[in-house]
Design brief:
The chain is mainly α. It is built from 8 helices and no strands. Helix 2 packs antiparallel against helix 5. It starts with 6 loop residues before the first helix and ends in a 7-residue tail after the last helix.
Length: 187
């Protein structure tokens, strides 16, 4: 399968070892987290999913050691409605970007647990695909390029700076997605 992740990034993940992979997927998941958290924040019955998602992303930042419960977290995440296909598929904006956020975390967890560069590339691919879709649907957006930059920078090792930049980028992409949601009339 062809991937959107740049060849140099994929090679650096293969060469960098487990800690480099863990830092890369933590940053990737952090940039995608506002899409799930924000788009599902007011959905009844999703409170425990929100807590689980936030805890999982937070735990990814412990890049010095693999997640011991990564496989169990994947199993629980796969119960999320976003990863359970239905006959209609994904048709609205909120569902589309919540799906990509969950998919990104779904790929980040095993990468963190195993240090697998291939799983990390899959995580990066999910984020790049989502940003490419946004670019196609928002005039003047350059989110795909903006996602490629931190993917390259995350291999540099400054976890604190990377976390802050990832939080900022995640908020910006959430703002862009909110702009695509249909406006609801106030009563």
């Amino acid at each position: 399968m062809e991937t959107l992740v740049e060849g140099a990034v994929a090679q650096a993940l293969r060469d960098g070892g487990g800690e480099a992979v863990r830092l890369y997927v933590a940053a990737c998941a952090e940039r995608m987290a506002p899409l799930f958290m924000g788009l599902r924040a007011n959905v009844p019955g999703r409170e425990s999913d929100l807590d689980f998602y936030a805890e999982s992303v937070r735990n990814l930042w412990y890049a010095d050691r693999p997640l011991a419960d990564a496989a169990e977290r994947v199993r629980l995440l796969e119960r999320f409605p976003e990863l359970r296909p239905n006959e209609e598929g994904i048709t609205d904006v909120a569902d589309t970007y919540a799906f990509f956020a969950v998919l990104s975390l779904r790929q980040a967890l095993p990468a963190h647990g195993s240090g697998s560069a291939d799983d990390a590339v899959s995580c990066g691919h999910a984020a790049l695909t989502a940003m490419g879709m946004l670019d196609q649907n928002v005039a003047g957006a350059a989110l795909l390029a903006e996602e490629r930059r931190p993917q390259s920078l995350s291999l540099g090792g400054d976890a604190a700076g990377l976390w802050g930049a990832s939080v900022t980028a995640g908020r910006e992409r959430f703002r862009v997605v909110l702009g695509r949601l249909p406006r609801r009339a106030c009563s």
